Amino acid sequence: MAGGPVTGVVHQPGSAAEVAEAVRGAELVVPRGGGTKPPLAVVDGAEVLDVSALSGITEYLPSEYTVTALAGTPLAEVEARLAAEGQYLPFDPLLVDAGSTVGGTVAAGANGPGRLRYGGLRDFLLAVAFVDGRGEIVRGGAKVVKNAAGFDLPKLMVGSLGRLGVLTECTFKVFPHPESCATVRVAGMAFDEALEAAGRVGSGAVELECLDLVHGLAGWDLEIRIGGRSFALDARLKRAADLLDTDVTTLSGDADATHWRSRREFGWAPPDASVLKLPLTPATAAVLEQVLADLDASHVARVYSAGVQQAFVAWPVERAADMPSLDRALAQSKLTALALRAPADASNQPILGYRTGGELLRRVEQALDPAGRFGRLG
Amino acid sequence: MAPADAADFLDALKRRLGADRVLTGAAPMAAYESDALTAFRARPRAVVLVDSAEEVVDIVRLCAAAEVPFLARGSGTSLSGGSLPVHDGVVIAMNRLNRILEVDPVRRTAVVEPGVVNLAVSEAAEPYGLYYSPDPSSQSVCTIGGNLAFNSGGAHCLKYGMTSNHVLGLEVVLPDGEVIELGGDSLEGVGPDLVGLFVGSEGLFGIATKITLRLLPKPETFFTLLAAYDSLAAAGEAVAAVVASGLLPGAMEIMDNLAIEAAEAAVGAGYPLDAEGLLIVELEGEEQQVAAESELLLEVVRQSKPYLEHIASDPDDRARIWKGRKSAFSAVGRLSPDYIVQDGVVPRSRLGEALTKIQHLGEEHGIRVANVFHAGDGNLHPLILFDGRVEGELERAEELAGEILRLCIDLGGSITGEHGVGMEKRQYLGEMFDDADLDAMRRIRMAIDPGELANRGKMFPDAEAPALLSHGPHPLEVAGVISRE
Ligand SMILES: Cc1cc2nc3c(=O)[nH]c(=O)nc-3n(C[C@H](O)[C@H](O)[C@H](O)COP(=O)(O)OP(=O)(O)OC[C@H]3O[C@@H](n4cnc5c(N)ncnc54)[C@H](O)[C@@H]3O)c2cc1C
Predict the structure, then answer these.
(1) Looking at CA atoms only, how far is residue A335 from chain B in angstroms?
(2) Is 80 exceeded by the pLDDT of residue A61?
(3) Is the model's pLDDT at A1 over the cut of 50?
(4) Confidence at residue B469, expressed as pLDDT on a 0 to 100 scale
(5) Which of A106, A335, A351, B430 is buried most deeply by CB count within 10 Å?
(6) What residue spans define the domains of chain B?
């Protein structure tokens, strides 16, 4: 597996108590779930805490819209359980078929294209249990859909990249799945044209599940997914298509489902490329385009996803040596990136570009991990 | 602080802001001595009226240097004592920091100062077909800064979430005066969600001076249904049936008979006075979708056999229905000289059980309880009615309030869904969380604010009196720190 531990020590705890014990005994330790996002589980000289044995759905209450699972539970298992009750994880987790786990997904803080409709992990994580850097088991949040008691530790753990604690259990809010979904596509647009069309459809009355711009061979493809009551779907698709004022193709049923599954599995990226996630807005997408052009990388595979609130960029393996230039260019443009996939010899630092909140993060790290057992982000 | 130092400190405040914006003395500060939890009062050292973020930073730095505790105050509508002054501390009144700095229809964001009133954001977004979603009943007065500190909610939080789900970026003054930027203007982020940590921190991590909010497109249409039942339980079952149907309404609210009576008397919303339980369900969104969903909703609700149903006929009718619901808290003032607004959460499927138990508890204590709640997310708001002039009633009311919170914990819920822990619920935080959980929170607080200057004394159970009960005077009262009237 890419990014193996330098120390070679791998713990496989079977309980939260064993996680705590392993943390207390280690000098530097990094948790690993399904190993689908190697750059997030590489810290030079760290022991590895493989939480995959901490697996299973511990509570699922469809009528409460809540599901609780141990951190090593594959999301595929969670999604299958929910689907049987007509429910789903609206943040649309990535790399599910590849083996993503509950804990790894929360710690990576990465959402798929479907996060457009109702929100991302931060909006759907209700409660967490984790082992902090002192080896204490800590719980935060509550297993109900609404709660304002105490500091919002669940949100703190979203995107914490294993540096603030080893997640052992997570409770998510879930929603009813739309009865059916379908997608309209417009192929081969110029970037500005596609961005403008995305804005028009995105601010129209039709509520969208996904709105992605995909860089293809012949320009940009605009893809719009709509979901809801089957009865009203055709009329709504037509309404969205009318806003586009050009020829569209439609995907429905299995073709639609397969298409979006491939998107979140990074099926659009060359298998050996690094994949970066960048938060942005429709107003800053052009900034990223300029950064890429300046680095002579306008050809790389990429997707502006979730209503152009995030980009996924496949950085080619043959340009791996240029990562530091990319890092600098992003920082100058006030853009931030997270490496979700990277070559095995990548650096310890999965975050590239512009950073905020450093001082607060340093203080939080000091509180939860005074000895720096998880390494430092801040 | 020695008297001479105290005088120096006040002089420093006045030099920075001008004497007219530094209030001292009983009369000028009277309005700031309590919030909407009126049973408690505390006298600050000074109230300062700030006009800019730079002033906030400088005041915080002066406080930090002199080790004087401080808190920000929005409109003082906290129901948990969150904006109760810290005794001898400085109240930083944020109301004048009320500029909407930017509304960006492309990004769909608004950048605001913290003293902006909640409803003003939607008003500013209106010309672009956008609105700010969290809608506390106090939205015409409460501020975004206060909303942020408590992660405030409202009736329409079922689908799109509470304040936290709508805050994207912040500029913050940490308690030692350091200024930082958190998050940005995207819905996505990288690294630990520090914006998420700050929201809901009840003023304990410092003061937000600039806030980037997410705006949503205004729903094209609404379908608002009022259904009246002979029993509260039947209304609760209707909620369960709607949830099971796979529909996702924008709001699902229930009121009991006492609350209906109060709301009718106050605003004449046209509610049936004889209903034991009144359900308001609202679908929102695009026309075709809402049309398709409303058929299913009517089918499901009719199966629950309401004795009366009413569909809002036009926007005015809809507004009337919501006005009744949103005025319920203040309307209860007509039924009783005093009342406590309680806020707790239970798993939605246990709502019926919780309500029955609350009713029994009320009877045991000889105290009337009115109920309004966000049924869709299990968020109860029992209104505990009492007469503070009757010897012992306040104590009994507080005791009942505490028992209701314990009930919420026992049923697997939370001691607050949206009003925060503040001063009122401190001792229950330790019942909801284990020592290790509280310890982690306390460590974060101490790492961020080692002097405990920001909103000192709030949220955490009192170290000296961990098993504090609401019987008799509050320990801080005994210590002469706070008083009630
Ligand atoms: C009639 C009535 C109805 C209500 N309905 C609801 C409801 O439906 N839903 C709901 O959630 N709440 C409701 N509330 C409670 C209250 O309105 C909310 O808690 C509101 O968010 C408080 O806002 P405020 O401006 O009054 O804040 P304040 O009471 O002034 O302050 C609240 C807290 O915020 C902190 N604070 C203020 N500004 C800042 C800042 N800039 N940075 C950091 N911290 C800050 C304060 O220090 C304090 O701890 C209601 C209250 C009343 C009286």
Answers:
(1) 10
(2) yes
(3) no
(4) 32
(5) A106
(6) 3-93, 102-217, 221-331, 336-478
Between chains, do B296 and A229 touch, taking CB under 8 Å as contact? yes
Q: In the structure encoding, which two tokens stand for residue A55, read together?
A: 């697996």
Q: Which CATH number fits domain B102-217: 3.40.228.10, 2.60.120.10, 3.30.470.20, 3.30.465.10?
A: 3.30.465.10
Mean pLDDT calculated for residue range B152-160 = 91
Q: Which fold has domain B221-331?
A: Alpha-Beta Plaits (3.30.70)
Under a CB-based contact definition with an 8 Å cutoff, are residues B283 and B189 in contact?
A: no
Residue B255 corresponds to which tokens in the numbers above?
């009121």
The confidence score (pLDDT) of residue A344 equals 65
Rounded to 10 degrees, the C-alpha dihedral A91/A95/A99/A105 comes to -40
**φ, ψ (nearest 5 deg) of residue A110:** -110, 135
Yes or no, beta carbons of A360 and B174 under 8 Å apart: yes
Q: Is the pLDDT of residue B275 over 50?
A: yes
What does pTM read for this prediction? 0.95
Output the CA B76–ligand 1 centroid distance in Å.
6
Question: Whole-angstrom Cα distance, residue B219 to residue B122?
Answer: 13
Report residue A120 as tokens: 């991302």
- The mean per-residue pLDDT over the stretch B122-138 comes to 96
**Amino acid sitting at position B126:** E
Taking 70 as the threshold, does the pLDDT of residue A227 lie above it?
yes
CB B241, CB B296: distance < 8 Å: no
Position in ligand 1 atom list of the atom nearest CA B329:
1
Q: Is there a shared CATH topology between the B221-331 domain and the B336-478 domain?
A: yes
Please say whether the structural domain B3-93 has been given the CATH code 3.30.43.10: yes
Which residue has tokens 């109760």?
B84
* Mutate-to-test residue for ligand 1 from B150, B172, B207, B460, highest number of ligand atoms within 8 A of CB: B150
Those residues whose C-beta lies under 8 Å from the C-beta of residue B319, and which sit 6 or more positions away, are none
- Cα–Cα distance, A254 to A249 (Å, whole number): 15
B74-102 pLDDT, tens digit each:
999 999 999 999 989 999 999 999 999 99
Smallest CA–CA separation between A297 and chain B, in Å?
23
Residue written as tokens 């443009």?
Answer: A333
Q: Report the candidate in A269, A268, A283 with the shortest Cα–Cα distance to residue A195.
A: A283
pLDDT of residue B332: 84
Say whether pLDDT at A350 is over 50: yes
Architecture category of domain B336-478 in CATH: 2-Layer Sandwich (3.30)
Structural domains of chain A sorted by starting position, each given as residue range(s) with its CATH number in brackets: 1-177 (3.30.465.10), 180-264 (3.30.70.2190), 274-358 (3.30.70)
Strand partners, B102: B111
* Three-class DSSP labels, chain A: CCCCCCCCCEECCCCHHHHHHHHHHCCCEEEECCCCCHHHHCCCCCEEEEHHHCCCEEEEEHHHCEEEEECCCEHHHHHHHHHCCCEECCCCCCCCCCCCEHHHHHHHCCCCCCHHHHCCHHHHEEEEEEECCCCCEEEEECCCCCCCCCCCHHHHHCCCCCCCCEEEEEEEECEECCCEEEEEEEEEECHHHHHHHHHHHHCCCCCCCEEEEEEECCEEEEEEEEEECHHHHHHHHHHHHHHHCCCCEEEEHHHHHHHHHHHHCCCCCCCCCEEEEEECCCCCHHHHHHHHHHCCCCCCCEEEECCCCEEEEEECHHHHHHHHHHHHHHHHCCCEEEEEECCCCCCCCCEEECCCCHHHHHHHHHHHCCCCCCCCCC
